[in-house]
């Protein structure tokens, strides 16, 4: 009898230990929408190996750091009063920031927010729009002038004394409006991909010469193309005013590709660029069709990243809740 009572009591204790304790320790899901400070005016976003996003402000150049797990954040680096547009993190936790109409670039310590180095890339009319960091350089686009700006990285990632201008020639032809915008490496890392917003074309540039060739997309348009994100052979191209992310499967050289999906979400309000963490894509709403005020709300939205098999066919993307 005593043995039966002890057995029953032990089973009850184990059951109690299993349910409430497990429920109490279950992690909360990461937010699908992250609010930014009112009036912030985000444009670029960068995410590294940790669940932290960095965003730049068009209003004053501030850099905001947000925790993807909680949605909480704060300004980590005060801006110079001129825009912060595209930005990228490197493996040394440095943030490379395109300076828009200021014609500048900055390199920021993402841990402390300290500006490590500033560069003047252009002295006349310019719009330094986006940046990508490769193994040996950081490359910046200029939407006004047909040129790439190169910060050649030295041993152990040492920053150069000044930038080098590489003129863009060949297939890309600048015209009225917003020209070269987003930039990404080719899958084989031998070239650079550049989207030209006003004509809706994608180009491959030779980093050594600046010579460009048009990427064959089978007649598909990337008009209003903005930020680019490469994941393996998959290229995500944000078409800002279309509230769309176009998904392209590229060949290794980045000379041709096939549009396999277009992603959208009712929360999109002119998203400008995209970064990824885990199985999500994160896009800031720039809200270019809304007149900005100090009280205008802004946000970053997360959507599921599509998954691909070995072929170029897209797997169904689950809807965002």
Short account of what is shown:
This protein is mainly beta and 321 residues long. It contains one helix and 25 strands. Strand 6 and strand 7 form a beta hairpin.
How would you describe this protein?
The chain has 321 residues and is mostly beta strands. It has one domain (42-304): YVTN repeat-like/Quinoprotein amine dehydrogenase (Methylamine Dehydrogenase, Chain H). It is 7% helix and 41% strand. It has one helix and 25 strands. It has one helix at 2-25; strands at residues 33-36, 42-47, 52-57, 63-67, 73-77, 87-89, 94-98, 104-109, 115-120, 128-133, 137-142, 147-152, 164-167, 169-170, 180-185, 192-196, 201-205, 211-214, 225-231, 234-239, 244-250, 257-263, 275-277, 280-284, 298-304. The strands form six sheets. The protein has a five-stranded mixed beta sheet, with no helix packed on it.
Question: Which key terms come to mind for this protein?
Answer:
mainly beta, disordered N terminus, Methylamine Dehydrogenase, Chain H, five-stranded mixed sheet, 7% helix, disordered C terminus, signal, 321 residues
């Amino acid at each position: 009898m005593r043995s039966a009572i002890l057995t029953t009591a032990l089973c009850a204790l184990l059951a109690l230990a299993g349910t409430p304790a497990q429920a109490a320790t279950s992690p909360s899901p990461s937010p699908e929408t992250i609010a930014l400070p009112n009036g912030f005016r985000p444009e670029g976003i960068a995410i590294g190996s940790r669940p932290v996003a960095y965003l730049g402000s068009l209003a004053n150049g501030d850099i905001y750091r947000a925790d993807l797990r909680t949605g909480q954040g704060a300004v980590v680096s005060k801006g110079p009063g001129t825009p912060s547009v595209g930005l990228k993190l490197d493996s040394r936790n440095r943030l490379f920031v395109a300076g828009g109409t200021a014609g500048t670039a900055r390199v920021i310590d993402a841990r402390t927010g300290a500006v490590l180095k500033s560069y003047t890339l252009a002295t006349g009319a310019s719009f330094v729009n986006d940046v990508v960091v490769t193994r040996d350089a950081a490359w910046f686009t200029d939407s006004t002038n047909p040129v790439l700006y190169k910060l050649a990285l030295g041993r152990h990632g040492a920053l150069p004394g000044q930038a080098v201008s590489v003129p863009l020639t060949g297939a890309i032809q600048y015209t009225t409006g917003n020209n070269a915008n987003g930039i990404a490496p080719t899958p084989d890392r031998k070239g650079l991909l550049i989207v030209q917003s006003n004509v809706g074309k994608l180009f491959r540039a030779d980093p050594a010469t600046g010579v460009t060739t048009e990427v064959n997309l089978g007649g598909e348009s990337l008009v209003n193309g903005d930020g680019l994100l490469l994941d393996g052979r998959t290229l995500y191209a944000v078409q800002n005013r279309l509230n769309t992310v176009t998904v392209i499967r590229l060949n290794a050289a980045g000379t041709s590709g096939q549009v396999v999906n277009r992603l959208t979400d009712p929360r999109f309000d002119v998203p400008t660029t995209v970064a990824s963490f885990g199985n999500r894509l994160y896009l800031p709403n720039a809200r270019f069709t809304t007149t900005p005020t100090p009280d205008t709300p802004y946000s970053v939205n997360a959507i599921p990243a599509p998954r691909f098999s070995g072929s170029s066919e897209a797997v169904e993307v689950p809807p965002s809740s």
